């Protein structure tokens, strides 16, 4: 098909995003950025001394996925667990200020909100400090989540599961989400975590990155091969994951090599990277699965959805921090074809 025809089709799909209703489920976090200047090395240890000049806070983890979705549609809801602590209140405040529905978020005084603190100087990350105590949901919390899912899923066009391996998701909850999505005919997109070993039978699409794909397939890592469609180890890992997870589609993100789509009944499809500059890969996967799900919920063919996700993540890596992509930026990328 001519390039201009493909671009026109992709622009029409992206224009439909604003009508979609998306539910994001997963591990919620708060991203803290401490911005500073470095002018000397500490006399106490061979490390830079950072003079702090500012601080910023952003939703992280599954909350960042919701933030990415919210750029494209006002009907965005998030479901997860946060502490009833200052960080949890800050996270819910940020989500609420962004117009994201947080009625599905449980706040537990016994839980500490997960915080990722990044210290940045001269546009370089000096160190990251993680504050987290991962723990599985209790039986009562799981039951509460399932009740909330019963209310939320029928109203959604698409569901995104963002598993960061922090304990919110379990196999019983994964099975419940898959069954509910299938029962109501909803698009279900999963960003898996290789160490949780959860299966997502019947998902519309599962989106691991290359490293996660090899880990989940229990294969040793292998160096990338180009062209991608001749990368035997990668194709074998993808084949094993389709057999293991049984999704309708598998999309493997490959960084500078773009994305590989495996769609049931079709040959593998590769879309090369659209990134022009790479400043920070933080959150690029969140951007990709957000746009991928919005496109599938808008009726896009999987290959078109992958193209849009690839373009959006190419924009995201050109920004510093856990940045989002706007509809105008995505449309401008399509106009540049």
Q: If you consult CATH, what is the topology? A: UDP-N-acetylmuramoyl-L-alanine:D-glutamate ligase
Rounded Rg: 20 Å
CATH class wording = Alpha Beta
Number of helices: 10
Global geometry: globular
Please describe the biggest sheet, giving its number of strands, its sense, and whether it closes into a barrel: 9 strands, mixed
Q: Please give the alpha-carbon distance between the first and last residues.
A: 14 Å
Number of domains: 1
Strand content: 25-35%
Percent helix among the residues? 25-40%
Q: Provide the succession of SSEs.
A: HEEEHEHEEEHEHEEHHEEEHHH
Structural class: alpha/beta
Show unreliable segments: none
Query: Average pLDDT, to the nearest integer?
Result: 93
CATH superfamily: Ribokinase
**Total strand segments:** 13
- The appropriate CATH architecture is 3-Layer(aba) Sandwich
Widest beta sheet: strand line-up: 5-4-1-8-9-10-11-12-13
Can you give keywords for this protein?
alpha/beta; UDP-N-acetylmuramoyl-L-alanine:D-glutamate ligase; 10 helices; 13 strands; 9-stranded mixed sheet; 4-stranded mixed sheet; 337 residues; single chain; 27% strand
Structure description:
By secondary structure, the protein is of the alpha/beta class. It has one domain: Ribokinase (UDP-N-acetylmuramoyl-L-alanine:D-glutamate ligase). It is 36% helix and 27% strand. It contains 10 helices and 13 strands. It has a 9-stranded mixed β-sheet, sandwiched between helices. Strand 8, helix 5 and strand 9 form a beta-alpha-beta unit. Helix 1 packs antiparallel against helix 10 and helix 6 packs across helix 7. The protein starts with a helix and ends with a helix. The relative contact order is 0.14.
């Amino acid at each position: 098909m001519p390039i201009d025809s493909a671009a026109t089709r992709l622009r029409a799909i992206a224009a439909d995003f604003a009508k979609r209703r998306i539910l994001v489920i997963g591990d919620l976090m708060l991203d803290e950025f401490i911005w500073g200047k470095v002018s000397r090395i500490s006399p106490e240890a061979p490390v830079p001394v950072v003079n702090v000049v500012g601080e910023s806070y952003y939703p992280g983890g599954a909350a960042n996925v919701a933030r990415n979705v919210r750029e494209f549609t006002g009907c965005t809801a998030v479901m997860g667990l946060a502490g009833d602590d200052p960080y949890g209140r800050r996270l819910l405040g940020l989500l609420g200020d962004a117009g994201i529905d947080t009625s599905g978020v449980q706040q537990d005084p016994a839980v500490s909100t997960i915080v990722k603190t990044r210290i940045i100087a001269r546009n370089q990350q000096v160190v990251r400090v993680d504050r987290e105590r991962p723990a599985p949901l209790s039986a009562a919390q799981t039951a509460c989540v399932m009740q909330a899912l019963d209310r939320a899923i029928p109203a959604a066009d698409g569901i995104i599961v963002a598993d960061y391996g922090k304990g919110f998701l379990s196999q019983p909850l994964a099975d419940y989400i898959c069954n509910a999505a299938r029962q109501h005919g909803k698009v279900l997109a999963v960003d898996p975590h290789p160490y949780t070993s959860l299966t997502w039978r019947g998902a519309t699409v599962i989106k691991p990155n290359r490293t996660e794909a090899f880990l989940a397939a229990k294969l040793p890592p292998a160096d990338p091969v180009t062209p991608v469609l001749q990368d035997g180890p990668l194709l074998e890992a993808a084949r094993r994951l389709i057999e293991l997870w049984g999704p309708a589609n598998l999309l493997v993100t490959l960084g500078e090599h773009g994305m590989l789509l495996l769609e049931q009944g079709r040959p593998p499809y590769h879309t090369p990277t659209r990134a022009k500059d790479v400043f920070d890969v933080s959150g690029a996967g969140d951007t990709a699965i957000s746009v991928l799900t919005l496109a599938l919920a808008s009726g896009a063919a999987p290959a078109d959805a992958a193209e849009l996700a690839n373009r959006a993540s190419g924009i995201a890596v050109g920004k510093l921090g856990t940045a989002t992509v706007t509809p105008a930026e995505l449309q401008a990328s399509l106009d540049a074809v």
